Each structure stands twice: as C-alpha cells, then as structure tokens.
Prior knowledge:
binds zinc ion
Amino acid sequence: MEGDGKSDTLIESLPKAELHVHLEGTLEPESMLAFAERNRISIPYDDVDDIRRAYEFEDLSSFLDVYYAGMSVLATEQDFYDLTWSYLTRAAMENIVHVEPFFDPQAHLSRGVPFGVVLAGILLALEDAEADFGITYRLIMCFLRDQPADEALHVLETARLYGHRISGVGLDSAEAGFPPGPFASVFAQAASLGLHRVAHAGEEGPASYITDALDLLGAERIDHGVRCLEDPVLVDRLVREQVPLTVCPLSNVKLRVFDSLAEHPLRRMLEAGLLVTVNSDDPAYFGGYLCENYRAMHASGGLTREDVITLAKNSFRASFLPDEEKLAHIQHVEEVAAAQR
Ligand code: ADE
Ligand code: ZN
C-alpha cells in the first residue's frame, strides 16, 4: 500500500499525544553542531552529512553509543530549553496536543551538568509551549538500567528537592542483560512519592522483562513491549489489564528489532486487543517524528485509516491525563475523523 494524500491529511490533522520520546533523542544534527560551537565542545563530526553518516545502527547498544556522545554538546539551561522548544514547535505542527517526554538526568550528571540546569531548561520550554500552543505535558525522568540502582536512588532524592515538577519515573538504556529487578526499591520509593512508573521492556530484552517490570516495578505502562508476542500468556494478561505499550516503529527498524516496517507487528498487536500507541522514540536519529511513524506504517500496509484513528485515541487513553481530559481529547479525535470519512 502506498501513502496517499487523504490519509496523510488524516494523520496530520488528528489530535495526538506522544508518550515515548526522549528529549535528548530529538537533538538534530544542525543543533548538535551549533551547541558544540557555542559551548566550545569538540565532537567527532565536521558537518551535518558527517553526522548523518554515523546514524547506521547494528542494535540498541550501537545506537546508545552515538546517542550519549551526541548529547555531550548539551551544557547549559539554554541548550536544554532550545532542545525541548524545537521538539515542541515541531509537535505543535503535527497536532500533538499532549506530551509525556523522557529525559536522562544521569547522562548529564555524569558530565558535570547539574540536575537543576537540565530540569530548568526543559520545564521552561514545556511551560512556554503550553502557553503558546496549548500543549499539555507530564515530564518523566528515566533511570539508566545499565548503571547501579544506588545511583538511581540518589537521582530520585535529588529530584525530590524540585517538588512536583516531575510526574513519573522510567527505565531506559541498554536492555539485554539488565533486567528490571534491581530497580524494585527505587520504583517503590517513586510510587510512595506519588510518581507514575513506566519502563522500557521487551525492546531487545526478553518478554520476561515485561512481566518483571509489571510485577517488580509496578510499571503502569511499558515502553516498546513488542517482544510480548513471544509469550501468549503475557499477551493475554496485557490485553486483560489493558496495559499500554508505547510502540516505536521507525526505531524498531533502525535498531533492527524487525527487518522492515512490512514485518512490524503493530497491526497484529492492535488486532490482538493490546492497548498500543505509536511514538517516535529518538526521532532525530531514526528518520522521523510522530506523523512520519504513522505515515510510514500506513504506506507499508501496516495500518488502515481506522487503525490510525484507533491509535490516536489510544494515545490519550494510555496517557496520565485525568479521565475527563482523556475523554475530551478522544471526542475531539472522533470529530476530526468523522469530518474526513
Ligand atoms: N534511550 C534512548 N532511546 C532508547 C531506546 N530506544 N531504548 C532504550 N533506551 C533508550
Ligand atoms: Zn525509548
């Protein structure tokens, strides 16, 4: 199936939420060069083409090497503001009306960038985008699962000093060989502070990491989760409990979780009754923002127009918005969709 103008219009015009985007993964090559220059930080690239040539990945860990190296140019509150603001202006153009973005504090603390600097820049941009574009937000702080759980606990304690500006905690970075279990007590502490809990699981790691994330971390939402399909008992549970899975098609192909979009199981997951959403993950590195993920899946035959509408509604159902706001957004999706039937 080819992409068509009518469906592209539908994809763009539907109100949508984005629930799985790493702000550091929205760092475009042009900004990487500009931040490197203004902060006098040297990077191993001469120009944009040079940077883009490095974006061929074997797997998650080969991507993470480039991702952590790329973010080394982020040093000041202004950098974090500009990074977040660029993503949000783009989100506004794509009719994204609610975002629940991630950031990785440890990846900045380890370079000597204080937590408060990172958080202040990100929050100011989120507040400005809410005022200017009406985009609402819940900010999620991720712990790096390939670093000690004690370090995560320390980050959580630091975050507490900043009150209620952070809505939830997540778990990301290299997955295979790094099960959720060691983070159980950090997540329990986060829960006791009233924070939401999400976790990357079943991207490269086995289906059992999804079960562990639910049972040991109390995860309310699973990021990726595509490998649940290897365990039918788990799929039944995810369907029964309607646990949201934030799926990222372009990311999965770039990181070779699946060979092509045509082989991506998104449609099968929807048909199985799973509460899946579409997201961009690290759009600057994976070749497309949210609408491009929808468009590419539709063009490859992996989504019908009705699926697109369902996914837009799911993005609100799976969010941390209060029920009445979810319902208002879902109703708006239905109105926009009805006008294009
Ligand atoms: N950090 C940024 N992108 C990630 C991904 N796709 N998986 C795990 N950690 C990440
Ligand atoms: Zn991710």
